[in-house]
Amino acid sequence: MIMRFDINKIMAGMLIAAASLTSCKKLVTIPSNPPSAITQQQQFADSATAITAVAGVYAYNIGNGFAYTSGQLTTSCGLSADELSYNYADDALQFYSYNLTPLNSGVITLWGYPYQSIYQVNAVLSGITGNANLSPSFQQQITGEMKVVRALYYFNMVNLFGGVPLVTSISYKETQRLPRSSAADIYDQVKADLTDATEKLTDSYPSAGRARPNLYTAIALLAKVNLYQSNWQSAYNEADSVIRSGLYNLTNTPLTGVFLNGSQEAIWQIPGNQGYYGVSDAQHFIPVSPGAIPRYILTGSLLAAFETGDKRMQDWVGSTVVNGTTVYYPYKYKNVSASSTPTEDQMILRLAEMYLIRAEAAAHLNHLTEALADVNIIRARAGLSASTADPASQTAVLKAVMHERQVELFCEWANRWYDLKRTGTAEAVLGAVKPGFSATDALYPIPQAQIQLNNVLTQNPGY
């Protein structure tokens, strides 16, 4: 039997010992005998102890658990794209103005936390593989889950930094001086992990909620990966499979329900709780008090992309009046306090994105009417009429798809930043709305400390 657990009830203190480090001087630096730790053998002595390590992988804790709980990915990439502007003169402003340095604290976070979390994943895989104390079904389930999580990390790493060191081991000797693998090799690893996961997972979620991946989580992420690699037929087939599974439904009334715990649109969502506040996006974006200027403000170009009557503008954009001027901020997550109700979860993958992936792939396959039909499903949910794009023009249909991605997926998982780069439109779009962008800004710098510690690492061009 596969053990089930409620991830909300497992204490963050039950993380595996090796992953309890709060910083990462090298990719993997583990003290030989931490005084407050249990051994790996003890951690994986049986399914009950092993499952606590698994829970640690999903824990919503900055630096200990799921890597993207700080909100850094959303804010940094929103600033680099045309979604957000910034009101303070600190490191974050460098993402907006394209003058990043390898010493930037946000860059260090975007590099360091995923590698800490990758170590956790690799430790679980190492601890369960071939473990006679664990049933084959348990090993199969957890292996599939961990490979989905690892694939998510490397998917984001390759899109942020290009080729990065590929760490699949917990051996310090093997990982301390790894060179950068090529972007192609990283993508190959991502696809290999996801393909293996699809062979190991079932369509049932293994615990309450949708924090632990199922079969369709792996397929949905694989659809996104294939979209980014222009594998149109594969992306189409995978997104279509998720949509047709019958497990997910678009949340309609109101749109604020999309990001709630238990959302039927959720393919993968992590319970958001940082102790005193919920999902970190709310803490970053919502003003501290009425009349206070938000730290991050939605740009005029994004606001202009919303059509009159768009429910997404009404439900997912907040506003406040500052010195007589109305300013707007992201408002998909509304609970600044962890005790606020209804409970919100950190959405990772959702059904609306699958419709837009299928639409984009269909357009590239020249199934233009079908592509527009998917676009119109998302538009109808937003209270809009059908797209006016010419159904005989592939260029027009693709433009309609990308427009819908902009207003549907704004300030979620760096989608806009990645879209501009993968479609080759970053320079034209960003150059028109703010100065300073050049081709080398498409990748972030490798943190300087990492290069100093590992002299086989090379820096990205332009830094």
From TrEMBL:
Domain SusD-like N-terminal: 42-227
Keyword Secreted: no
CDD domains recorded: SusD
InterPro entries named among the record's database cross-references: SusD-like_N (IPR033985), SusD_RagB_dom (IPR012944), TPR-like_helical_dom_sf (IPR011990)
Annotated keywords: Cell outer membrane, Membrane, Signal
Pfam families given in the database record: SusD-like_3, SusD_RagB
Keyword DNA-binding in annotation: no
Family to which this protein belongs: Belongs to the SusD family.
The protein's name: RagB/SusD family nutrient uptake outer membrane protein
